[in-house]
Specification:
Number of domains of chain A: 2
Largest sheet of chain A: 8 strands, mixed
Oligomer: homodimer
Structural class of chain A: alpha+beta
Radius of gyration of chain A: 28 Å
Mean pLDDT of chain A: 94
CATH topology of the largest domain in chain A: BirA Bifunctional Protein, domain 2
CATH architecture of the largest domain in chain A: 2-Layer Sandwich
Low-confidence stretches of chain A: none
Number of strands of chain A: 16
Largest interface: A-B, 102 and 102 residues
Chain lengths: ~425, ~425
């Protein structure tokens, strides 16, 4: 017999996982909405031209690309930013700033590994229309608040600016057409180490002394304002570099009002993998995960992309945004959120066949009160039904007996304590609501 | 300049549409959960072998099929039933009955037309493990309740049984290997008319007198029990036919307890397009849509598929389910649900630049109380900010002035009445909560 299964790197979410995921996504959604972000959805499939426009070579190779039946080159979206940029370009009448959130799935053909899948969810909040650090601060803050609402307050936001990186690259002597290349290599610092990056830069034709100077720049560390002032003196005369420094200082000042400045650490080695970033960029890392498990990868990130929207035929619309990695968040929360097999609270079963239809009537009453209620659909004997409720983890069972019912009662069984009590039928809802 | 847009038959959902959709999907989800269905998700992409197993030739042609980078034949799911069947087959340890719901997107390459898209959402509730009419009645009832909760109580559930259709086809003289073919043609009755169906049946090699007999069968109409008794006498001796009739009678009896029998009409012409159905099948049609717009197509449907799960390598697990067509429901609800451009309730703006950071602090307080709140991210003048709030439809604006603030006040402006009132800062949340 053939084996039918999910594709490599893709997963089914059974109820146990889904209940947990939904709870987490609901928290993120609430925070996004509290900040005035509005929901927006786009198709899973986009024209290849849209997807490949500004994603960078690495990601381009990972796109699920195919031809549709009309012979068009299309692909599955690899992030939620590119579709957002296309929407803003296509709908120029939208009032600005346009703040949207989207919690949805994306696809990348990567080598599957722990916490990395070929189908995964992102939770994004973006602002189109504001060129100001006010907008960058807002998206950084909404990310911080979402993670805090999930119990992840042990975070650090590593903040940098593509403009500073560009200024440094020019100062170091990287040729203008090699700057993006250099960024891509530096982005791998965590993965391939200093030696690896040096090698890659050299293979890209960047002289060793230039690379070393660049790596020296990005390893400058210290207290936020110290680092920025040191970089300022090093980049003196670089207009783009100065701009980048001033933007970060403004962002830090504004984040004070959000009560989020304390989470931010200037980190000049942050690059972000995608080609479309143009200004402030940031990553959220856990200092320690709640389960004690160390998790060095960023659980969220984002940045400013001022030129992407006009690439899709729109006017010039500056934009900035944050993206939470749902799978990584799920992983670091593993064990720290309660696990449930079922949402169902009550199971209504007949003690005798003759009152089976009565169990449905009682269940319907509970359902109308939004109490998740199940009935026996297998015509099982009572003991088997109790076994099923037990296995599923349903906390309460209502047992309907013909004689009880005639007297106007049912029996409510608490599956944890195994205690049973007789309850008047009209009081059932009230009693159960109290217990839940 | 190239034009970047969505693919034909696919749509962006801007906030206005998404807010409406989310509201509708939340109602459906609530009803599904109240009936004890648990959430489950599966990947958008499945192996071609899984998708093509039992969908029928028509649908097979509509699947977005492609090769992934590993050279595997894969495709986008065209419904939520097939992935559900695969999951149940792959996880035989799941306690039975296993009740799951899934509200998610599916893809079919069809000719786009009003209410029909190439990417669309379905809202499904299925029960695996029960062979009994109790389960069929439960899924029919949850569909009725979901539609009623959406305000669609003017519905009719057209109920039939594949077993009755099979009995009739055999009685009429349709050769065994042509029965599924005959069903597929009858399924088009609404689209191509009686003559069209006769022609198609003839082209499939079914003699005219056989076809006519079959069409005579399926046009039997009248009061539910009358129809079933008439069919019983016509099918006397057909074991499968008798079984089908008895199942429908049981379902009707059980639906009485759900208070849903009154919505059900036996309709022998209902076939359902997919090959995997084996027993009771049903469609929900609107007698009249709330907007007065006539809408003849089914807005939901479902049925029993007892052999699908074992086709995916699982044990024999009988199953039944209902699927709500989200796009069609959206369409019939058009105009009857309130339209909102925004979820945001409050816009906090400074009267003078010097108190800008103070507006953020006030906004943060409201956000922590789950009041969707926006702040000015454009550093606009007050009148421009009020214009923006107006355009977006944000109902309240908080204006923060330096002098007011020093005295411990802010100004709350009702954007509809244009009335402004001074409020003490510590009372802002209380006052706004009262108004919302």
């Amino acid at each position: 017999m053939r084996e039918f299964k999910t594709l490599r790197g893709m997963r089914d979410f059974l109820p146990r996982d889904m209940i947990k995921r939904e709870r987490i996504l609901r928290i993120i959604r609430k925070i996004f909405e509290s900040y005035g972000f509005e929901p927006l959805e786009t198709p899973a499939i986009e024209y290849w031209e849209v997807l490949s426009r500004k994603c960078g070579e690495e990601v381009k190779k990972q796109i699920f690309k195919f031809k549709d039946k009309g012979g068009r080159d299309v692909g599955l979206r690899f992030d939620l930013t590119v579709p957002f940029a296309r929407v803003v370009a296509q709908n120029p009448y939208l009032p600005k700033p346009f703040k949207r959130y989207c919690i949805s799935r994306v696809w990348r053909y990567e080598r599957p590994q722990t916490g990395r899948y070929r189908e995964f969810w992102q939770a994004d909040a973006d602002i189109a229309g504001s060129p100001l650090p006010d907008a960058d601060a807002e998206v950084i803050a909404v990310g911080v608040d979402a993670l805090k609402a999930l119990g992840l307050d042990n975070i650090e936001v590593r903040l940098n600016n593509r403009k500073i990186l560009e200024g440094m690259a020019v100062k170091a002597g990287v040729p203008g057409d090699k700057i993006l290349d250099a960024f891509r290599s530096i982005d791998k610092l965590d993965k391939i180490g200093l030696e690896g990056v040096l090698e890659e830069l050299s293979s890209k034709g960047i002289p060793k002394e230039v690379s070393e100077k660049l790596l020296e720049f990005i390893s400058i560390s210290g207290e936020n304002m110290e680092v920025l002032e040191r970089v300022r003196s090093l980049l003196r005369g670089s207009k783009v570099g100065e701009e980048g420094i001033n933007e970060l200082i403004s962002i830090l000042d504004i984040l004070e009002a959000y009560d989020a400045r304390k989470y931010v650490k200037i980190d000049l080695s942050i690059v972000r993998g995608l080609d479309y970033y143009t200004g402030p960029i940031f990553e959220y890392v856990l200092k320690e995960s709640p389960s004690g498990k160390q998790f060095r990868l960023a659980i969220a990130g984002g940045g400013r992309y001022d030129n992407l929207i006009e690439l899709y035929g729109g006017p010039h619309v500056p934009a900035t945004g944050v993206s939470l990695g749902v799978e990584r968040i799920m992983e670091v929360l593993e064990g720290s959120i309660s696990e449930e097999e079922t949402l169902t609270k009550v199971y209504v079963v007949p003690a005798k066949e003759e009152v089976r239809l009565e169990t449905i009537k009682i269940a319907q009453k509970l359902r109308r009160e939004n109490i998740p209620t199940d009935v026996d659909l297998m015509r099982r004997k009572l003991d088997k039904s109790l076994e099923y409720a037990d296995k599923k983890g349903i906390p309460y069972v209502i047992i309907v007996g013909p004689r009880d019912l005639k007297e106007g009662f049912i029996v409510l069984r608490d599956m944890k304590t195994r205690l049973q009590e007789k309850i008047e039928v009209p009081k059932v809802i009230e009693v159960i609501k109290e217990k839940l």
